[in-house]
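Attaching the record inline, Q. Sequence:
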Amino acid sequence: MKIKENYSLQELNTFKIDVKSKYFIEIENESDLKEIVKEYKSKGEKILLLGGGSNILFTKDFDGLVVHLITKGIDIVSQDDDSVLIDCKAGEEWDEVVQFAVNNEYYGIENLSLIPGTIGAAPIQNIGAYGAELKDVFYSLDGFYTADLVEKSFSLGESEFGYRDSIFKSELKDKFIITSVKLRLSKEKNFKLNYRDLADLNKLRKNITIKKVRDHIIKVRESKLPNPKVIGNAGSFYKNPEISAKQLTNLIDQNPDLPYFKSPDRKIKLPAGWLIEQCGWKGKREGDVASYHRQALIIINYGNATSQSILNFTQEIKDSVISKFGIELETEVNFY
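Structure, as predicted:
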């Protein structure tokens, strides 16, 4: 294991923000991970586990140790006629896990195709797209507390999943390191095709295959979202706001074309991208920061944006949405 000092993180965060970490190391196995966490915790250093860096905005240099976890492995734990339980090391790329599932006709995560990042980061955010969320197939995860290295497994209930939220994003943020994730996938066809971008697939439901669903979702995502390898971005910058039925009635009175949808828990959600677009931000650029011209929800870095310029730009968006709709947008991206 080789520790690097004053290490640039520009290529390890998809926003391409040029910040540095005091210390940096890549780790390929869990025993080395525990050893390095113990050593640097004893020195009083802060520790940040970094996977794909796809949902993070660095606001300054990181004064501590950044661990880039690249552990690999997807194993079948158990299976029966109806389902299969797979165990994935935290450093596995999320989309590689989806590809593995699709190749084996294991159903449940095909709607989450092409989401960037690692599976170790997926539970933190409870990633979701096109009517599906990680919690729908989550079985458990393993990891350890950074303070004392005590290992623990978290079940679905203990993980306290919410909309782009979990106990690992709130109470246990920077206090618990996820080392592997188990998913329970179905062997029976059980597609979620009610999302409007999947309407064409829904018409072909009788002849649909899991590969066709994945291919279609990849095509939709590529048509709407910029490739973070080409244009700096962290995906959806804001969550879709949840409102009450009364709020919806009042908003529709003033905005008859307002789109909305009901989530499985019967909460009413508004598309944040539409709200931002109505405030005139879609495609707007200030310096090297912009709202993406195909999807206003995506904030992009054209090359030399600083974290402060991104923060200023996104605060202006929040202020205008509050002013026009009386709704405060919550960020989906994590700040460090």
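The chain has three domains: 4-69, 74-223, 230-335. The mean pLDDT is 93.

More tomorrow.
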